[in-house]
Write a structure and sequence with these properties.
The structure is a homododecamer of 145-residue chains. The relative contact order of chain A is 0.20. Chain A is built from 5 helices and 5 strands. The longest helix of chain A has 15 residues. By secondary structure, chain A is an alpha/beta fold. The interface between A and B is medium-sized, with 22 and 22 residues. Strand 5 of chain E pairs antiparallel with strand 5 of chain G.
Chain lengths: 145, 145, 145, 145, 145, 145, 145, 145, 145, 145, 145, 145
């Protein structure tokens, strides 16, 4: 891939490393590795230079966002969606376009999952399409860039 | 287009006929006709047979959903997102996969726009990407079908 | 039926035209036509002159209520139960005795279905008995008249 | 009455022994005895074997429900409608079909009367028709059995 | 009236066609026709070209507002005051000055009537003066124009 | 005492039999017997014929209130103040003047003690004066009668 | 002006003496003196005998309302709109018709400005028309008297 | 009266100077002067040296409380009951025993009258007995002192 | 068992007499008698003198707690957990250490079961372990004593 | 002090005249005079021309703020912090930099003290440092000016 | 200990390393080391292979839970009880039986400590027994396994 | 600096490392290094031995607070202000005087920033003065020590 293609950072939040191994009835049976391969494959097709990272710590996610050597951010904040003002503030501070992604439709789950601190600092939100949510987000980023 | 391609119904809710004519700072300057052309063009490319309709009446939208001669539904319920249980019940009754779409990021707007009766009966939700929200929804439908 | 029997108007709200065709596990497998036949049959037995109508539009229901050429009203407002002040105001304005009917027990369903704008202008409410709810309402009307 | 007719237990909750003697503008002027006679008369006509009981104590009502030698329950929980989880649990534990009855339309009264713990364990609810509420409940039970 | 006088659209919401016929203790005994005559008479005196319309359907009101061939809007949204985001969005989209009118003082009535979706997109609100509310609104519009 | 003096019933609610024995730092060290003696003594002085009763069961209190052979009621509902609609309904049904009494100032205690179902059916409330609350209530009753 | 014209008292609440000097982007650039002149001029034209007064103290406004030598009251309670039960009680006690006036549309401002203690004791409310709000109120008073 | 009798200050809050002149159906037809005479008469009988004062201003009441040359305080804060933290703080700062008094039963009136800032700093509360509420408060103070 | 072993009172609240007979999928298939045997057996092993009692009436439970001839209390208040301030007050008045026990995990059930009036007066709470909850409570009591 | 030093107005709200005399465990034992001396002394050192004033009336504070002959405002609104929109509006209207000061940490006290109407129109807030809060505010003002 | 005994992981949440050193009046004077020794000792007695770990970071706890080489989990989430959806999700994903433990009775403390995200994914909860809470949890785990 | 000067620990919470680089319109253009220099300079002047640290992880902040080798703490918890009970508990456990600092006035920002878990365990709070907030906190600490 050419070095001048736009860089996109994909962050997978806490517990997403368990994808495909646990609760497959809810989250599907694809592993995070397989999902990342699909992301990278589509990114290549769209002319985007994507890097992916899974992190369980709130502070670690804040620091990764702060590094800022990317043109756009795709983030599935998982549990931190509903509790982390720190991640929200990091996204707002960096000021790069961000797309919030969820595998499941968070509005059909427990009441506490229906509120997102992240949406208010994102360009948009895509939820409910399983691993496809990431691929749609890549296309959205492509348009935004 | 071949008659055996899957049919997708795209419903534009109240006031969306004014797109591109009013409040262009919020909703962009593309008219609904232009957006519909893009939708039809991508549908064709994806092998989907799409029909689009803009309606201002809640009961009219309910009846269009009920007719049911489609494989999937893309709906931007606009103002009815937040107030219409009737549209929700129609979608639930028909039982076809539905994708909820919003041009703007409804979670960054007034408090009363942050609640959706429709999300709970949709496969997923896409919001915040302007007219691209519809195109992403088409791709999501393609995967679902 | 003699022309001097009291007239009763039965209104079926939005999506009830789908009865018996969709979600039969929740709403039962009797069609609206079959239910109407049972209503008319019992009305005849009770000496009531009943007419029935299904409508999906809020404004259409308001206007049907306004016509007022009936002695009593039986209404299953369906989704509008929880959102329509306009239907409430129409019932209050006409001032004829009204009985609110629901097929399912709305208090065992989603939180948003537990509030009724209509009950406060009705003589009484009957819910949870499937199509029998209408028949019980007819008997209640018979006593009231 | 034949011994193999289905047994129906009718429970009148606290203060209903005062019916016809107090607050007749709200609750009407029929005494509980007169109402019970009408209930028994209609039950006989419908082929049901009914027994009635008025109780003021929450625990006493719980114990009567627990005895369980009936096929169905009609209960006017009166004030306990809004406060008694114990009665709710007893009905749920016994698992016989129950119909909740109110003389007045509880949704047109004080705010604290609009919530029922009992509805969520009942087949259905009938309210607002005065003593006729019981008779309609008997007919509903007849259909259910 | 000269063709170059400013046009003012007056919209009467649901159930207002019953004015003077029903609930005259609350809404007074003047019919909508009589009120419209007074509106037209004062408009003529003020040099305004007024047209009036009563509609019961939410979508119908949305579409009338959208037509937009007027300089200012006077609207009594009646029951839709409290539930219609669609009417709100239509007024906001058209961007003409609007005055919200109510016959009764909505803040002295039921709790659910004390919230207006329309006020937030109106220049101002006048309520509580019976049919005079419309005449005061005409004068307010005259000043604004 | 003469038989034609007005009868006043004083009801002490749950746990008040423990007065003077438990939690004396909160409720003082006078026993219920001593308090009753003071009540009877003042009643005699005021020309009132008082009888007192302590009960722990909600249904028992309801039934005592229902007996109704008194001209006025003084009630310290204790814990039932905050939870019993049944006692409230009994007082309302009997329709005799009632005075609600509390030893402690319930508005300075836990949040759940600040709401009284009983006050809304009482002539007035006296709280915070320890056993004197009863004596003040007797004087209030004397004035009312 | 003749001594037998009806007297109208106009009260300007706290901080309104700063009109035209501060925050002119919100409240306009007319001073209170200029507004008072317009009020007096229109009153004269309508045959009303108006007196105006600006006061910053809640108790002072209460006492002015109590003096009661007027037939009707126009009041812009400003900040006290949202906090003063004392002013509300004074208006209710005097029992003269009152019109509540606001320069700005209080329903488009901070949440805490959307509640009025005064509206519930006023004949009606006019808000959002700047100084014209007072003039419309005068006309409303003229009709009421 | 001897100079060494305990001093009791009685404060009547805003609008109580209108007693007996306005809203006599709610507050009774005794004037404040008549009530004060009864208070002084009973105080004399009980050996208390009472002084009474009616004030409409919140700050004025605060300052009267601060003067502190009394052994106990009886206060009917009227409208300030529900809004004044300043009066509350003054009572707490002075630290003399206080009894809160209301003519009407504030818990049977509007929702906003059911909360008192004053009760939490008072020894006790007496409400609902009309002018007798003051006399009962005097007796309560007598016991406390 | 020796007479000087500490006495522990175990109270089973309403409907627990149905254990093992009803809703065995939720509450397990052990009867209350079997559970009591296990309790007594472990108590003996731990050197505790235990007595058990099941009661359905709130007042009856209050009175049993009041008798107070025990060193510690284990209570499963069942439905009264969420509604009974009277039981709470009885436990607080007696002042013996109490352990609150639930068979099921009340925090995974209906919203109204997540609040306990009893916990605030208990030493601790054990829930979710079926009949073992009682046995763990016995061990906890052993440590406390 | 030179006449061209910036003027700072320090307002002490209701009941602060009692400092050092009452509730010294909460507010400390320094009198308001002593605190004022420290304020004046530090102001002199910082080159600020300070004047101080204690007022108990809400309207009086509004008027003092309105006079406006100062460059900056330090205000301890005491009880009015939580209730006065009038003071808030006065500060906003004048538009001078203001610092809100509290002796105690208001966020560790009663719930109703945790909301400030004043903070939203202040540059900043300092609370919890006793009389030092004022001195820190002076330094903050020095930096702002 | 034999290698085939079931493994139990005990996680101590944030600040629990300070046990016995700080706030001993609340949490007791036993150190975490001492508590761990008791846990290990009882585990050995019960035939369980226990390992313990104290962690202050939310992400670190998530990762420890994810490792999953244990048959059951005992967790005292401390402050994260009330804020961490990430820990909740980790427990749910792994799907091993978990017991939630608290030293203090969290329902007798600040309001914000009364809600647990963890309880809803635990088998049960034990709180209020100090270090014994852990030992009771071990016994509960023993029964579950 | 002498080794016996009191040690003060200054903690900068998440995202504060971006100060001066991002969102300079909100947070000003001074970098964290510059701010730290000013802090150290003033500390030296006041005779305080200060050390500063910026951390993004909640657990890391908890551990730094626990080390406890300081006499006082100044903390700007940034986003964790509103979400971290763990930091609150650490401050409470260590028991050293703490001052909470914010650059911006958190009460003029989003609703979710108006609640602080930290204030309740701090001596006081200073907010809204930009980097000066830290310097004022140092002076406050100086007085406290």
């Amino acid at each position: 891939m050419k070095s001048d293609t736009p860089k996109v950072l994909v962050i997978h939040g806490p517990n997403l490393n368990l994808l495909g191994k646990r609760e497959t009835d809810i989250y599907g049976c694809r592993s995070l590795d397989e999902i990342n391969k699909d992301i990278i494959s589509l990114a290549s097709e769209l002319g985007l230079n994507v890097s992916t990272k899974q992190l369980n710590g709130e502070g670690d996610i804040v620091e990764l966002i702060q590094q800022g050597d990317y043109e756009a951010l795709i983030i599935n904040p998982a549990a931190y969606t509903h509790t982390s003002i720190a991640i929200r503030d990091a996204i707002a501070a960096i000021g790069k376009p961000a797309v919030e992604v969820h595998l499941s439709n968070i509005y059909r789950r427990e009441e506490f999952r229906r509120k997102s601190f992240i949406t208010e600092v994102s360009a948009g939100q895509i939820c409910g399409f399983g691993p496809d949510s990431y691929l749609l987000a890549l296309r959205a980023i492509k348009s935004i860039l």
